[in-house]
Amino acid sequence: MSKRNFILLIIVSTLVATAILGFLYLRPKTPTPIDDIIDTNFISQFNPFGNSKPPTKGIETSPVDVSGYEPNVEEETPKVKLIKISSMPIAGFTVFIKERLKEIPIVNTTPPLALPLSEEGVPPAKGGAGGLKTTKPTPPLTEFMPALRYVAKATGNIYQTFADKIEERKFSTTTIPKVYEAYFGNRGEFVSMRYLKGDERTIETFVGALPKELLGGDMTENNEIKGSFLPNNVKDISISPDTSKVFYLWTSGESMIGTTLNLKNNKKVQVFDSPFTEWLSQWPTDNIITLTTKPSVGVPGYIYTIDGSGKNLTKVLGEINGLTTLVGPNGKLVLYGNNNLSLNIYHTDTRNSDLLGVRTLPEKCVWSKISDAIYCAVPKSINSGDYPDTWYQGEVSFNDQIWKIDAKTGNTTLILDLATLTKGEEIDSIKLTLDESENYLFFVNKKDSFLWKLELK
Length: 457
Known about the structure:
Blueprint: H1 3-26, H2 34-39, E1 82-84, E2 90-101, E3 142-152, E4 158-162, E5 169-170, E6 181-185, E7 190-196, E8 203-209, E9 226-229, E10 234-239, E11 245-252, E12 255-262, E13 268-274, E14 279-285, E15 288-293, E16 300-306, E17 314-321, E18 324-327, E19 333-337, E20 342-347, E21 352-359, E22 365-367, E23 373-379, H3 389-392, E24 400-406, E25 412-417, E26 429-434, E27 440-445, E28 451-455
């Protein structure tokens, strides 16, 4: 081969090799998934010729939905909490607003600069005489929270706790054995306890003022309750909406006397007198006291109203067997039931009644003060019987659910089946009470008289 031909062969071979290398280098490469990078040899990722084997794993591409359907995003179901508050059976309780020291988290900071031990070395201020500058102490931060006070049934001792942080503490040591009922007034600073005397027949009612607490003095438990006694055989007690007054019914001879007691000045005024002695009272508004005949399965019941001065006795509703009532906070709506435990709302302005879709007793309910809602403890099942007599006498008891009822529309909403959070313990709820902001619902289990709390928000 001539020298000229040899040179041409080398040039052609070089051009062909360059073209092949350029093609391989510039061709599109398939991206290697991250999972494959982890499982393969590190150096092989730099192989410009790629991998002769197809990747075992790849990036999965979801199919595109072109239907336009958008699924509804369900709201998270609010968590509800049910807590037993009292460690003993109670005779009564109240909810009130109480001030407490606010807990402030401790933050690590650098040590403060040391102050001079005397006024020496402190330069005088411009136009001043020098010396240490005095400042007023910063008052502690406080907050106002719902709190509870309740009376132990066995001893009459008073206990208390905050609603958001259950820490049961004894408040008083005054002992009154076997208290049947207890009522609080004057925003938790007054208590009335009803119990039987030694003859097991005479009802005695003790009333007393609770000592005021110092801020941060929750640990004090040796408080003594001093007070006096109402007349013997007080049959019924109700507290005014502002908790500053008490209305009580007591027997005098053959008559039933109704008297108001002002807790601020201890002034008593008789406002009611009736030869009929079987009454139950409520004080729903500042100017209205209601009187309902005690219910029985076969006896027509009636409800009347009087004003605070005892005038204008007015019939509201009647001729309903087994009538039980709960008047709303505006005095215009009356929640009532009959001997079938059917729940209704009576409108005093239009004199019309609306049948609600639940069966229970009005005293197992509570009216909201900030909305048109009613919270009721509704039995899961009701056996046949002579109601409400058999329930009052303890011959039957219920296993409740908590329902919310819209008083305007009649719509009902199930909030909670209590048995689902009590490990099977059945609760027959009475004395339902809401705190001021209606974040909590409190009630007593009629079966054992323990106090419970249900978080609503």
